[in-house]
Amino acid sequence: MMNELSAEKIANMRIDYSLKVFDETHVLANPIEQFKNWFAEAVNTHVNEPNAMTLATVKPNNTPSARIVLLKGFSEKGFTFFTNYDSHKGEQLSLNNHVALVFCWLELQRQVRIEGTVTKLSDKENDEYFYSRPLGSQIGAIASPQSKVITSRHILEQNYSLVENELHLKEPERPLNWGGYMVQPTLIEFWQGRSSRLHDRFEFIKTGDNWVKHRLAP
Ligand SMILES: Cc1cc2nc3c(=O)[nH]c(=O)nc-3n(C[C@H](O)[C@H](O)[C@H](O)COP(=O)(O)O)c2cc1C
Asked: Which ligand 1 atom lies nearest to the CA of residue 83?
């Protein structure tokens, strides 16, 4: 029997955040440096999958679509992730390159929001990452027509075995529809949970080559 969760019980689920303060004395002038600090802290605190981020895209009918992907690198240039270019997200990105990313590091009572536009990574960058993955993941990427309707799990397993058998002992080749994107940020917001819902929020907006910072009301 499933434990009864009353509507009231759900409505009363909340935590008063009091773990950390993030104020003008903490926030750095450069949001990428700030992200670097917070990301390192998330890793060192053993946040569960700290590089998991929600990626929101825009569908051709202008409605949003969101899913989680893994961050695979970041620098002043942007934030990278890898996927199948023929997937739903890939098709959406080919028509509209505006995206939003959200990191949620609950163990630290933190959220980071990023908005920007994507560009595809180069073949060289795609190869570098593809061939660094475990063999099983490489074969999985070849075998799975991401986001397409399939009639059963069996199809996937059959595809996987077919690819594996075709390879014999050869190295797999990166499929041309598999690769990465870089999100070039235009907005980055850092959110630290505080008591009584008086959270700390700092938003950075890219203005020319510079970042302009504001504190936002929670
Ligand atoms: C923790 C986690 C990590 C994921 N990482 C990736 C990823 O890095 N790349 C990817 O294509 N899908 C990843 N997925 C699967 C996506 O959420 C999604 O199901 C898939 O990309 C298909 O999305 P689409 O149909 O909107 O294109 C991940 C899912 C979870 C829950």
From this structure: 11
